[in-house]
Design brief:
This protein is mainly α and about 240 residues long. The protein has three domains: about 1-45; about 70-120, no CATH class; about 135-235, 2-Layer Sandwich (Potassium Channel Kv1.1, Chain A). It has helices spanning about 1-45, 50-55, 95-100, 105-110, 120-135, 135-150, 155-165, 170-180, 185-195, 210-215, 215-235; strands at about 70-75, 80-85, 110-115. The longest helix has about 45 residues, at about 1-45. It is flat.
Length: about 240
């Protein structure tokens, strides 16, 4: 009887150990799931904060809350099932704004039906508009650096396009140096072209002395390009 009793005790201990290990694994899995959920919530809040959160953050990158709903056909066909994509009217194109401002059904309901686009396409469209609205000049610089470092060529090209569109005489030298540092070919060519178009003002530019001290090789490179351009003009 004693052996049987001891066997039961050993069996019970083994069962308890297994139960404890299973419970521990379950707890760990739940903890991981909770952390994943927290991360997802944090991401969603950062991407789509409420108006109250937007005011508290003090950020001025643009409107984050939504006041318009775009309705897309899931299968891209009118009459099929539909899904909605919330968006803020401030980032919409003039066509959408005209629909909302005129005395139309859309202006009354705040809902615009897009029957010729799938939900995924419309969501990607709105995401692009949101990114473009947030992509100011400073953000374009920062994203270009990341795109160059991690070889995201399409993002780098897009950032270059933004910076070229904002290029002017005042920031031409800064952009030339930046483009040279980060191998941004299109921005480099555009900045150099602008500098050469104002070649007689180049030495008087407020950033000229700073560039000459920081990177004199770039100044020499610009002057070589200027001389080459003049030589080609004389040759022709």
């Amino acid at each position: 009887m004693r052996c049987i009793s001891e066997g039961h005790v050993m069996c019970d201990a083994s069962v308890r150990k297994e139960c404890y290990e299973e419970a521990s694994e379950t707890v760990e899995e739940l903890k991981r799931e909770i952390e994943d959920l927290k991360a997802e919530v944090a991401f969603l809040r950062s991407r789509y904060p409420t108006d109250h959160q937007h005011q508290l953050s003090g950020r001025s990158h643009g409107p984050r809350f939504t006041d318009v709903v775009l309705v897309a056909a899931v299968d891209g066909c009118e009459g099929g099932p539909s899904m909605t994509v919330p968006v803020h009217s401030a980032i919409l194109s003039p066509v959408f704004k005209a629909m909302l401002e005129n005395d139309m059904e859309e202006s009354q309901s705040g809902t615009i039906k897009i029957s010729d686009a799938s939900y995924d396409a419309l969501q990607a469209f709105v995401d692009f508009l949101s990114v473009e609205e947030l992509l100011d000049e400073q953000m374009a610089y920062e994203l270009l650096v990341l795109a160059e470092k991690y070889q995201v060529e399409h993002l780098k090209a897009y950032c270059e396009m933004i910076l070229v569109s904002k290029l002017n005489w005042d920031n031409s030298i800064i952009n030339y140096a930046f483009a040279h540092q980060h191998n941004a070919k299109h921005l480099l060519e555009a900045a150099l072209s602008l500098i050469m178009d104002n070649m007689f003002e180049f030495p008087e530019h407020p950033k000229y002395s700073e560039l000459a001290k920081k990177d004199p090789s770039l100044v020499r490179e610009i002057f070589v390009a200027l001389v080459a351009k003049q030589f080609n003009r004389c040759g022709k």
